Amino acid sequence: MNALLLAAERLVGRAPQANTAPPTGVVLALRAPGLVLDAVAGTRSPDGAPMTAATHHDLASVTKIVATTTALIRLVSDRLVGLDEPVRRFVPAFAGGGKDAVTVRDLLLHRGGLWEWWPLYVAARGDRDAALRHAAGLPLRYPPGRERHYSDLGFMLLGQVVEAAAGQRLDAAVRALVTEPLGLAATRYGRPAGDEVATSARGDDVEMAMLDTGHPYPVPHRAADFGRWRRGPISGEPNDGNAHHALGGVSGHAGLFAPPADLVGFATALADHAEHDRLWRPEVVEEFFAPGPDPGQSLGFRRYELAVGAETVTLLGHPGFTGCAVGFVPGRGIALALAGCRLLAAGPPVPTDALWAAARAAAGEVLTSASNHPAPPRDPRTSTRNR
Predict the structure, then answer these.
(1) Are 35 and 370 in contact (CB under 8 A)?
(2) Around 268, how many Cα atoms within 13 Å sit in the side-chain half-sphere?
(3) Which of 42, 250, 273, 355 is 20 to 30 A removed from 5 (C-alpha atoms)?
(4) With contact defined as beta carbons under 8 Å apart, do 73 and 282 qualify?
């Protein structure tokens, strides 16, 4: 049994963080030169349907890099967007109160000073344009350009930047700029491309609690202010409340669905970005991949350490609230994807960051073993196991 499969089975049997419940099911996919591994364990729905390598998942905030950041790499490469241009050039409603100085770069670094989160659906009532205007009109919460404050609203605005620069709605722009050129045929906004779908949660309970408790963000609304909460299993539509209830499933911060094969395919393409120089300028990609002023953050991408034998390399990627994550090592051909059902746990769910750390550790173990003991090519049929 390889370390990746062992990690998947351990994750569904025991949460990697104390006082939390394990996910009901996970898929781990690892690609590296000469290495193709997929490990599957557990179930994808409350009724016990088995998780498989073909299951489609709500990527949640992984959308921020698969869609928005990668689309911006292309638009900056084509000189249609400048990283140091003010956001108001593309989103005129985002102006005044310190906003005029906020740049595209600031938003990619989460240094725009915006609120981290806001329940746009309370006021917008399903009107996407109204929701985006409301997001642009909110006053800044922090002085811009000084500190990192991870913000969904910032990536909603970046989605509007993509729309303005590309001249089409975000889903069409991402399809033209990212998913079609990279061959990600099953990656789409708003709903999965296939019928085998992971249930992302048992309802909108998390966001209802966020409004009623004011934690972690003190917004001036309560759950009773909104009347379209989902009180049953969420499957086939975005888990994120703003993406689903306010933005029609299409946003810069969330809304994408994909199977693990597309997720790790995306990571492989970014790991081997030099092979796709017809799509982007190398110097632009390198600027997006470079460390930012805050630890663990590049332009759009999060930065992680991956131990491979005696060497530690930088893995770029991003986690998502539902239990998905993706990462890659530029120039090394290393790609890693995690897709899990953490919110179906029968207790406090383990954070995605803990699942992602366990996945990276398992990948490092597999890569270390492979580098120390090169093996002949394996039959791909033996690399996937369901449980």
Answers:
(1) yes
(2) 17
(3) 273
(4) no
pTM of the model: 0.95
Q: How far apart are CA 195 and CA 167, in angstroms?
A: 31
| Paired tokens of 86 | 């003010």
pLDDT tens-place string over residues 50-103: 999 999 999 999 999 999 999 999 999 999 999 999 999 999 999 999 999 999
Amino acid (1-letter code) at residue 75: L
User: Residue 382 pLDDT > 80, yes or no?
Assistant: no
Here the contacts of 366-375 (C-beta below 8 Å, separation 24 or greater) are 366/2, 366/3, 366/4, 366/30, 366/35, 366/37, 367/30, 367/32, 367/35, 367/306, 367/308, 367/309, 367/334, 368/307, 368/308, 368/309, 369/3, 370/32, 370/34, 370/35, 371/308, 371/309, 372/309, 374/34
Task: Give the C-alpha separation, 349 to 352, whole Å.
Answer: 9
Residue at 355: amino acid letter = L
Residues of the chain with pLDDT > 70: what percent? 96
Residue in 346, 360, 300, 327 with CA at minimum distance from that of residue 20: 346
Give the residues across from 349 on adjacent strands.
Answer: 21
